[in-house]
Amino acid sequence: MTSNTKALKPVKFSPKIGRDFSATLNKRVRMYFKENNISRYANANMVIKTIVMVAMYFVPLGFVLFGGLTNIWLIALMYVIMGFGMAGIGMSVMHDANHGAYSKNEHVNKWVGKIVNLIGGYAVTWKVQHNVLHHSYTNIHGYDEDISPPPFLRFSPNAELKPIHKYQHFYVWFFYSLMTVSWVTTKDFQQLFRYRKMDLTKTENPNFGALLTELIFSKVFYYTTMLVIPIIILPIAWYWIPLFIVLKNLIAGFLLAIVFQPAHVVPETEFVVADIDNNVANNFAIHQMETTANFAPRSKILNWFVGGLNYQVEHHLFPHICHVHYKKISEIVKKTAEEYNVPYNSHRTFAKALVYHTKMIKSLGRK
């Protein structure tokens, strides 16, 4: 991760380049909602999905805690299902809420977004890393932490190249799986203190002590329900429980990583360095178009499970619109991009996106 602990100096996007494209696109998207008389927030389908995803995590947890399970394989299955539920909540529920896209009611967004606290993460640090650093500064060197991994990985051509990176296309998949293992152990604490030094936590709560207390309580709840109580009540050797927790997080981390990474680390996306005055030679919308890619736009099943994140272009342009509308919006975005000769990056299938992501990871490991 980035070692920057100073207050960030904002990047300045061009106010002129791409201005007409942005104005036209925003107008057309507003007209889509107005003409169809629909809200940009969650609809009934989104509410049903929320219930399904939350149940996919907490129903198996309920069986573990209160179901009287004795078969070790059945217990393991509950943790596996929770792994899929954890990824589903992360992509399809709390993601929209923490963008303010779930409901026009800020309190609904706040509390739905805090579901991530119950499954091992922390909404505050997630919002800083994702909403502030990633969405505001997508693929900008030194700003976007999503392309600033540990030193044995290289996700940007602007990062330092090391000999070990030559083999990263082989071992990166294992470290993708560790994403939520890092969440539930040390990462949230490290980020909270680092973001305070970067002056990024005040928008969430100027009282740092309150944030730290909330984080501690969320971790206590997580480990009590996920580790302590199962060790006490389940009739199996204690060491199976931490192994099942790791298994759950390996599944969730891998699913999350393989959805997010092919959206930005592929050959056709741009990787940007701001100039000496912190300027970027594009407006914000054009920058997002050049640094983001879609995949599998016709896959209804994938689109449902990953919360519309296969439409990353639309998500980055309109993060405050609920993902259930992305498919329709994508038609507007693609048409407008063609009119203004703006790149619209998209892979036909998820498998193709993963192949191109692998090629990019391999190329980044070489000179």
Give a structural overview.
- This protein is an all-alpha fold and 367 residues long.
- The protein has one domain.
- It is 59% helix and 3% strand.
- It is built from 16 helices and four strands.
- The chain has helices spanning 19-35, 44-66, 72-92, 94-98, 106-113, 115-118, 123-136, 168-177, 179-197, 208-233, 240-260, 284-291, 300-305, 312-317, 326-339, 350-364; strands at 12-13, 279-280, 293-295, 345-347.
- The strands form two sheets. A two-stranded parallel sheet has the order 1-2.
- Helix 2 runs antiparallel to helix 3.
- The longest helix has 26 residues, at 208-233.
- The model has no long low-confidence stretch (mean pLDDT 95).
- Pfam families: FA_desaturase.
- Keywords: Membrane, Transmembrane, Transmembrane helix.
Q: What key attributes describe this structure?
A:
367 residues; mainly alpha; two-stranded parallel ribbon; 4 strands; transmembrane; oxidoreductase activity, acting on paired donors, with oxidation of a pair of donors resulting in the reduction of molecular oxygen to two molecules of water
